[in-house]
Design a protein that fits this description.
With 404 residues, the chain is α+β, with helices and mostly antiparallel strands. It has 14 helices and 15 strands. Bound molecules: S-adenosylmethionine. The site of S-adenosylmethionine (SAM) has 20 residues, from strand 7, helix 8 and strand 12. InterPro entries: SET_dom, SET_dom_sf, SET_domain_protein, TPR-like_helical_dom_sf.
Length: 404
C-alpha cells in the first residue's frame, strides 16, 4: 500500500531498554524518513523501548518516542507508538500538511469561534466567541502527544513516566506550555496528573481498523462535560486532527460542551462513571434541572438505546425492511440537541440498508443526501465524502445498466 524507505534503518532498530543506542546517535539529524508520499522530519533521535519477551516467544515490537516540532505549522507532536503504527501513519500521509478544504478556509476567515475562560464550578472551559451555526466545525485540534496503549500497558511505570515526560519536553514551547497548563488530576506523578483528566482515546494504526491510542489534545481538553451537550468531537486518523462540531446553533458566550460518555448512558451510571473515572460530580445544566426534565431526558435515552439495539439486530439478521422502518423512525425522532450532527452517517447507513433490500431508488436518494451532507459538513478529512461519491457512482452505474 505504501513504502517506507529501509535505507534509513533508524526507525527499525530499537535502542534497547530506554538506552540511547550508538546506532541512533549515528543517525543524521533531523531524522528524515522518506516515504512514498512525503518526508517526516523528526526533531530528535527516536527513543525506543523494547517490551519484555512474551510467553510464546514472539519477538516483541518496540515502542518509540518520535517528536516533530514542525508538525502542523509548528504545533508539534510527540508520538509514542510502535514502529509499525508510525510507518502506517507516515504511509497514509497523516503527517503531510495539505491545504484546508474550502469550507474550512471559509470558517477560518470568520475568526476564532471560541475562547478558553474560567467557568464557575468547573475550572476552565470553552465558550463561543461568536455565533456558531448548527453543524459548524468549531475547533480543529492536533494531538500534542499520541500514545499507544500497548506502551502504557507493557512498560514499567518509571520507564513510562520518563518517556512521557520527554514526549512533553520535546514539544515546541507554545504547545508544551499549553499541555503543562492543563488542569491536573490527583495522580502522584506530574505526567499522570496531566494525562489523567485530559486525554482522549482514539483509534490509530492498522490491524482491524486501528488500535486504541491515548491522545492529548490541548485545546479540546478544555471542553467540559455536559449530559445534554451542544457539541461532539470526531477524530481523523488520516489528518491526525480532532474536529469539534456544534449540534445546534450556539449563542455568543454560551459554553461549548461535549459528553464524556455515550449519550444513551442512564443517569445513575453517568454519575457513577464521572465520579469514579473523572473524579467530579457533574454540575451541568441537566444535572441541576428539575426531576421532570431529567425524567424526560432519561426516557429519550432509553428509547434511543433500545431502538439502536433493535436496528442492529434487524440488520445483522438481514431483516432489512424492519431495519429500514426503524432507522426512518429513529431519524424522525432523533433531535439535533441530543445526537451527533452526523446526519450524513445515518443517511449513509440507510442508503446501504435500502441497497441490500434491493430498493435502488431509495438507496440513491439517501446516498445523495449523505454526499450532500458530507460536502456541507466540510471536514478536513474528505474520506467520508470520497466513500459517499463511490456509492453514488456505483448506484448510478447499476441504474444505468438496468435502463439498458
Ligand atoms: C477535560 S478537563 C475539562 C477542562 C477543565 N475544566 C480545565 O479547567 O481545564 C476535565 C475536568 O474538568 C472538570 N469538569 C468537566 N466537566 C465538568 C462538569 N460538568 N461539572 C464539573 N466539573 C467538570 C473536571 O474537573 C474534570 O476532571
Amino acid at each position: 500500500k505504501y513504502s517506507t524507505s529501509r535505507s534509513n534503518q533508524c526507525l527499525y532498530f530499537p535502542a534497547g531498554r530506554l538506552e540511547w543506542s550508538s546506532h541512533f546517535n549515528s543517525c543524521p539529524l533531523p531524522e528524515v524518513i522518506a516515504t512514498g508520499k512525503a518526508p517526516v522530519a523528526w526533531s530528535f533521535p527516536p527513543n525506543c523501548i523494547t517490551p519484555p519477551p512474551t510467553e510464546n516467544k514472539t519477538s516483541p515490537k518496540p515502542d518509540c518516542l518520535f517528536s516533530s516540532t514542525a508538525f502542523r505549522n509548528g504545533h508539534g507532536i510527540s508520538l509514542v507508538a510502535s514502529t509499525i503504527t508510525t510507518s502506517h501513519l507516515i504511509g497514509i500521509g497523516s503527517f503531510n500538511d495539505e491545504p484546508l478544504p474550502l469550507a474550512a478556509q471559509r470558517r477560518e476567515s470568520l475568526g476564532p469561534a471560541y475562547k478558553i475562560v474560567p467557568v464557575e464550578g468547573k475550572g476552565m472551559g470553552v465558550v463561543s466567541a461568536r455565533h456558531i451555526k448548527r453543524g459548524e466545525i468549531i475547533m480543529m485540534d492536533y494531538p500534542a502527544v499520541l500514545i499507544g496503549t500497548s506502551f502504557l500497558a507493557n512498560s514499567k511505570p518509571h520507564h513510562r513516566r520518563r518517556i512521557l515526560k520527554k514526549a512533553i519536553k520535546q514539544l515546541p514551547e507554545g504547545t508544551r506550555k499549553k499541555v503543562e497548563g492543563l488542569s491536573r488530576g490527583k495522580e502522584e506523578y506530574e505526567v499522570d496528573a496531566i494525562l489523567g483528566p485530559n486525554a482522549n482515546t482514539v483509534l490509530v494504526g492498522e490491524e482491524g481498523g486501528g488500535q486504541v491510542h491515548v491522545g492529548l489534545f490541548a485545546e479540546t481538553a478544555r471542553i467540559n462535560h455536559a449530559c445534554r451537550p451542544n457539541a461532539h468531537s470526531r477524530f481523523s486518523e488520516r489528518r491526525l486532527t480532532m474536529e469539534v462540531m456544534a449540534h445546534r446553533a450556539i449563542k455568543v458566550g454560551e459554553e461549548i460542551t461535549m459528553s464524556y460518555i455515550p449519550i444513551t448512558t442512564p443517569i445513575e451510571e453517568r454519575k457513577k462513571y464521572l465520579k469514579e473515572h473523572w473524579g467530579f460530580e457533574c454540575t451541568c445544566s441537566l444535572c441541576r434541572s428539575s426531576p421532570q426534565d431529567i425524567e424526560e431526558s432519561e426516557s429519550w435515552r432509553r428509547r434511543q438505546k433500545s431502538l439502536k439495539a433493535t436496528i442492529q439486530d434487524a440488520t445483522s439478521g438481514e431483516f432489512y425492511s424492519d431495519a429500514i422502518a426503524m432507522s426512518e423512525e429513529w431519524l424522525q425522532f432523533a433531535d439535533w440537541d441530543m445526537v451527533h450532527p452526523l446526519w450524513p452517517e445515518y443517511h449513509d447507513s440507510l442508503a446501504d440498508l435500502y441497497f441490500r433490500n434491493g430498493d435502488m431508488m431509495n438507496a440513491m436518494r439517501y446516498a445523495r443526501m449523505a454526499y450532500d451532507g458530507w460536502v456541507k459538513f466540510g471536514s478536513i478529512d474528505d474520506e467520508k465524502l470520497e466513500n459517499a461519491k463511490v456509492l453514488v457512482d456505483k448506484l448510478d452505474k447499476i441504474s444505468e445498466e438496468k435502463r439498458r
